């Protein structure tokens, strides 16, 4: 589990704790029977939460790849800078 996954899991755990302390047992069943529109909103909110989590993790993977590319380019530039005096000496 990477750093972002730990943060997201902690946030989700806090949400579940808040829901557990505020929702009565049977709330979901009551919604299904009495407020199907609200049940639909719950489903939509949970789907949005899941999709956003996936997007954040995908973006975090892209972030890691960008960090790696940046490091590689800087290392390449450093190697070329080390070889520059030798190249100049050969050209002279």
Radius of gyration: 26 Å
User: What's the helix-strand series?
Assistant: HHH
Number of helical segments?
3
First-last Cα distance: 55 Å
Work out the helicity level: over 70%
Please identify the structural class as seen in this structure: mainly alpha
Q: Major beta sheet, specifics? A: none
Task: Give the integer mean of the pLDDT values.
Answer: 90
Question: In percent, how much strand structure appears in the residues?
Answer: under 5%
Please identify the oligomeric state.
Answer: single chain
Note poorly predicted spans. Answer: none
By DSSP, the count of extended strands is 0
Shape category: rod-shaped
């Amino acid at each position: 589990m990477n750093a972002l996954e730990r943060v997201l899991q902690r946030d989700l755990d806090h949400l579940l704790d808040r829901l557990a302390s505020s929702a009565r047992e049977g709330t979901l069943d009551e919604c299904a029977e009495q407020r199907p529109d609200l049940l639909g909103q719950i489903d939509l909110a949970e789907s949005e939460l899941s999709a956003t989590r996936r997007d954040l993790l995908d973006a975090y993977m892209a972030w890691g790849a960008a960090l790696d590319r940046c490091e590689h380019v800087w290392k390449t530039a450093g190697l070329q800078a080390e070889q520059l005096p030798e190249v100049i000496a050969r050209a002279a």
